[in-house]
Amino acid sequence: MSILTTPAIPQRSAHGCVIPQLGFGTSQLGDCGQLVSTALQLGYRHIDTAWKYGSEKGVGAGIRASGVQRDDIFLVTKVSHEYLATAEFANSVEESLRNLQVDYVDLLHVHWPSVDGVPLAETMAALALAKRRGLTRHIGVANFNIALLDQAIALCPEPLSVLQAEYHPYLNQNNMLAYCQQRGLLFTAYCPLARGRLFEDATLIEIAASHHKTIAQIVLRWLTQQGDIIPIPRSSSPERIAQNLAIFDFQLTPAEMARIHALAKPDGRIANPMGRAPAWD
Ligand SMILES: NC(=O)c1ccc[n+]([C@@H]2O[C@H](COP(=O)([O-])OP(=O)(O)OC[C@H]3O[C@@H](n4cnc5c(N)ncnc54)[C@H](OP(=O)(O)O)[C@@H]3O)[C@@H](O)[C@H]2O)c1
Q1: pLDDT digits 0-9 by tens, 203-254
Q2: Exposed/middle/buried for 197, CB within 10 Å: 0-12, 13-18, 19+?
Q3: What total number of domains does the chain contain?
Q4: pLDDT tens, position by position, 77-97
Q5: Of the candidates 235, 263, 230, 264, which has an alpha carbon nearest to the alpha carbon of residue 248?
Q6: What secondary structure, in 3-state letters, does the chain show?
Q7: 125: number of CA atoms within 13 Å, CB side?
Q8: Of 235, 234, 199, whose CA–CA distance to 218 is shortest?
Q9: 142 lines ligand 1 (CB under 6 A)
């Protein structure tokens, strides 16, 4: 597979998985075909979806409408926590491929750890089998904490390439980032813009003004400038979709990076949809 990105988007790699370092998020976008097509035409080459979002059909339609070749797109989907037993897992992956109208995805995640006692070994075997069947090129998990990720790595018959978890300036993820670096995993940052909660932040306003950039661009730059971190911002506005891509033409100083790191709050976490999700580290 060749992943041709616009020269402006760097790539990161882990265990043979090469990913454009900025993706387009599609949760809560409904019928998102037009937006996905716009994102691809603007230069995005990494699209994040999930069975749970109900956006897979729109993502598939957007890919087809964009004129961008399937092989030039890094496509990610996820198996929801209800479907982590062997047969349900396989059915869910096959349904996702039908929704997307593609033969394979580039990265398949377990969306959340099990809340109904499905053994992790069973789920990791099902995930590895999806890869061995060619339904996905690479595999990863989302919303695992360090203890769970450690077990997943040990149990999975195929290497995990990516952890996807919440990360933005209001949430400290230093422990998980260090663990991922130690184990050679990339970190996809979801809710990278904290779903808009940081747009009134005085520190970010000041840094944005000094670079003639928007707060969203400062935050996305802060994430990517850390290294193996891949933000996947969502937007329903073509103008903001384009804006979020324009983050590779400037640099934050070490002092600015540190000031943004210092914004983390103990209650900064946003995503906890089932109320039984594992505590972050
Ligand atoms: N694995 C998981 O469990 C999980 C959980 C959550 C999210 N995700 C993934 O991560 C993606 C991103 O997270 P998210 O959608 O929750 O939140 P997000 O990307 O942090 O924030 C999205 C919000 O930011 C606004 N926004 C985007 N760009 C902007 C800009 N340049 N200026 C001002 N506002 C801007 C959007 O409004 P407009 O639409 O008006 O621009 C939207 O309200 C999701 O779409 C999904 O693909 C994964």
Answers
A1: 999 999 999 999 999 999 999 999 999 999 999 999 999 999 999 999 999 9
A2: middle
A3: 1
A4: 999 999 999 999 999 999 999
A5: 230
A6: CCCCCCCCCCEEEECCEEEECCCEECCCCCCCHHHHHHHHHHCCCEEECCHHHCCHHHHHHHHHHHCCCHHHCEEEEEECHHHCCHHHHHHHHHHHHHHHCCCCEEEEEECCCCCCCCCHHHHHHHHHHHHHCCCEEEEEEECCCHHHHHHHHHHCCCCCCEEEEECCCCCCCHHHHHHHHHHCCEEEEECCCHHHCCCCCHHHHHHHHHHCCCHHHHHHHHHHHCCCEEECCCCCCHHHHHHHHCCCCCCCCHHHHHHHHCCCCCCCCCCCCCCCCCCCC
A7: 9
A8: 199
A9: yes
Characterise 156 by phi-psi region: left (phi > 0), alpha (psi -120 to 50), beta (else).
Answer: beta
Determine the structural domain holding residue 26 and report its residue range.
19-196+227-235
- Flag whether 7 is in a domain: no
- Ligand 1: residue of 77, 214, 234, 276 to mutate (most ligand atoms within 8 A of CB) is 234
Q: What is the pTM of this model?
A: 0.96
Does 275 reside within a domain? no
Determine, yes or no, domain membership for 33. yes
Q: Is the CB of 26 under 6 A from ligand 1?
A: yes
Tokens describing residue 142: 């989302």
Cα–Cα distances in angstroms (integers) from residue 269 to residues 22, 81, 84, 216, in the given order: 21, 20, 25, 18
Residues 6 or more apart whose CB falls under 8 angstroms from that of 196 comprise: none
Whole-number Å distance, alpha carbon 234 to ligand 1 midpoint, is 4
Query: Which residues have C-beta within 8 Å of that of residue 92, sequence separation ≥ 6?
Result: 51, 79, 80, 83
CATH number for the domain harbouring residue 100: 3.20.20.100
